[in-house]
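Purpose: get a first structural picture of the assembly so the mutagenesis plan has something to point at.
Setup: two entries, given in the order below. No constraints added.
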Amino acid sequence: MAVCVAVIAKENYPLYIRSIPTENELKFHYMVHTSLDVVDEKISAMGKALVDQRELYLGLLYPTEDYKVYGYVTNSKVKFVMVVDSSNTALRDNEIRSMFRKLHNSYTDVMCNPFYNPGDRIQSRAFDSMVTSMMVQVC
Amino acid sequence: MEAAAGGGCGSGQPLLLSEGEQQCYSELFARCAGAAGGGPGSGPPEAARAVPGAVSAAAGPVADLFRASQLPAETLHQITELCGAKRVGYFGPTQFYIALKLIAAAQSGLPVRIESIKCELPLPRFMMSKTDAEIRFGNPAELHGTKVQIPYLITEKNTFKRMDDEDKQETQSPTMSPLASPPSSPPHYQRVPLSHGYSKLRSSTEQMHPAPYEARQPLVQPEGPSSGAPGAKPPRHQASLIRSFSVEREPHDNNSNYPDEPWRITEEQREYYVNQFRSLQPDPSSFISGSVAKNFFTKSKLSIPELSYIWELSDADCDGALTLPEFCAAFHLIVARKNGYPLPEGLPPTLQPEYLQAAFPKPKRECSLFDSYSESMPANQQPRELNRMEKLSIKDMADFPVPAQDVTSDDKQEQNKTRLEQNKTRLALKSTADEALPKDMSEDPATSKDSNSLKARPRSRSYSSTSIEEAMKRGEDPPTPPPRPQKTHSRASSLDLNKVFQPSVPATKSGLLPPPPALPPRPCPSQSEQASEAEIHPQLNRAPSQAADSSPTKKDIPYSQPPSKPIRRKFRPENPATENQEPSSTVGGPASAATGKPHTAVQKQSSKQKKAIQTAIRKNKEANAVLARLNSELQQQLKEVHQERIALENQLEQLRPVTVL
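Result (structure tokens, whole complex):
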């Protein structure tokens, strides 16, 4: 359902990025990159006062013709960005939220691995398989 | 290969079979032919021989038999072609025999050629189904698709005495004989264990390193043969064969139901892991934190991604800590990986924490397929797991801090009574191996603990390295003692200890040198006194005797090293007190010096002076270097500031005309 999933570190470099149609990857990379600005904007808009209450799910960051980009930020300023196909109208907000939640859980599992140094690329197979399950069925 | 004794075929007739081989083949043929020639255990050669002449083996049983040899299908095809069955269209005795020999050759790793069969070969090994075994030997093949060597086979081929094998078989046979159920086991039953075992073996063989050899291992399992002695032979034979190939492998496990042989943890392995766990975390019911485990597993020298993956597999609840079963699983995976097994895609069922916890109390009878390839430890041909893994792991764990004693004690704790004898023999073997190991390990624990601590230390320091360096630098400063707080003592001032650390040493020294011989004069007793006194004390470095004598060496005191400082301090307060004594001592001293050894005193003094001078020079150089560096840095800063200033001035000028205008 998702076409591209990316995990961006606090310093705005990607920890993990994967897209399904393997051609044209660059386009997705670019989209994710531009979405970072929007994410930052939303974070700052939420305000410093509301840090605690700031919701992790940012919602639709920006829509393009073909795609919609959703964002999610963790408390440690790690950002998850997901690009979905616009034609997939059946995809509701709840589903997106649940997908982000799964991402977040898998990410924390990766973090729990003592052999993982924060800031490294994520190479965990479990994480990969989870993302694959989310990205299935693009034809 | 000494086993292929007997007639041993040489070159010449393509099908010269040794006696044992003849027996074996003929029996097999008989069986395949469906003839009743093969009686349980008593396959008399005559009967067997009589039959084949007239019969050709049916293709079905033959195919089954070949499959039981656990060679890849391709090889079997080759064999059938070579032996001429295809040509002839059926498996006559000659074809069958040739085929069997080829199978033996293939199992020995030789290429499938006609030439191969011309040499002595061990018997081909077949994994027999239960029914076959029962029929044959009246011995129930072990429950889960045990591999039964065709037992009656050879009698003479036991040049290799494996008592334990024999014992084992004997001990086993009683247990197995009861299973001599009627031969009329349903045919499908025959299929299942066969295929199961075969597939299991296949999977394990694929996993194994030197693939073809491994297939043999299990078969060494001297299972079946209730006829203990004859049964013992083939395994021995195989053992010898295996030896001859210098493949130290351990027999394959036969009892496991699971296809994941390598992922079973044997009892000894488990003990070992538990001990390791305890070394990291005394409470077995608690868990090991991630960092501790990381340090520990890093010692295994696997790559970090692999370790990361292993952790992922084993930490089932993803809590960043390992409980005992999780730890065992992780350890087991590491050991497996070190032995060349590829890591599984998912945690094997036998390594699941629940399984491990449940299985904990039970002694594991299955053997894991952990052959210590890389280990050259004498492989016990015990079919059961036991020490294989352990030995392997022990050697592997030479990297780890290993309590070797635990291992050997674990050994003795084995609960398999049927294996007691085997254990004893094995222990004998093991203990020799372990003796070597404990030495390594006793060193290793020390070194590894050191490395542990070393590793721990740098880790904790990694973030504060700079501060520590700075601290170190600062720490170096003290050695250059600041000028002592000079009590304004007349003598002190004259002594001018400050000059000790200053480049003015030579001057003072030179100034001092001339007077030395003129000791006695009272006017300079202060110096002399101080010199003598100071020298008395600082004679850490110099001969104490010098102190009294070397009154001339007044200035040596200043040039003596910092360690003498406290001495000087001591000296100071003493001064007033000693002053009174000084005259006497100095009188005595100089007198004796004058009389005794003015020259030697002078020489010694000069040497001391030299040392003092050298130390002073060193300190000065250091100070110079520091100052030079500081100077260069400051100059750079100055340049930069200059440039900034120039830039700013330019800007100002540019702006000014605008505003002016």
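DSSP finds 27 helices and two strands in chain B.
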